[in-house]
Amino acid sequence: MADTTTYTYVPHHRTKARLAGTTAGPVKVAELHAKGNPAARFNAWFAVQVTDGVGTMWCAYAFAALALVSLPAAINSGSPVILVSWVSQTFLQLVLLSVIIVGQNVQAAASDKRSEATYEDADAVLHEAVKIQEHLAAQDKVLDALVEKLQAGRA
Fold first, then answer.
1. Could you give the 3-state DSSP secondary structure of residue 70?
2. Is residue 2 part of a domain?
3. Is residue 4 situated within a structural domain?
4. 3-state secondary structure string, 101-135?
5. Contact status, residue 53 vs residue 59, Cβ threshold 8 Å
6. Structurally, how many domains does the chain consist of?
7. Stretch 96-121: mean pLDDT, rounded?
8. In the chain, is it the N or the C terminus that has fewer CB atoms within a 10 Å radius of its CB?
9. By the 8 A CB rule, do 118 and 26 touch?
């Protein structure tokens, strides 16, 4: 049979690696902790522990209660500057710190979930593309056979 194929499939290097199972899945926030020397690992661990503790709504409520302890003194001072200072420097900074961390944790979890879904979708598309390549190769064989028959019929 004469080879009349005009296309040769050459998979992308990432496709080859993915099909061979040599690529990792999507990167997750939890996987980004330091893996270096003991001091770097301890610092990363300690930072995560503090962030996990401060990044809760219970901590935000505790900070709000702590800030409210000094509210009467700010009101009794009679100075609007001191009251504004209390609101901005004491209440907002203490409470918003925890609330922002909670929000970032929620966003990071959502981002990890989106990343996993995107990775799985891309993996499915890759496998579908491989099946399409196999289908096209099978069609090429049938077309080659038809061309060969047509050429043999003319001769």
1. coil
2. no
3. no
4. HHHHHHHHHHHHHHHHHHHHHHHHHHHHHHHHHHH
5. yes
6. 1
7. 90
8. C
9. yes
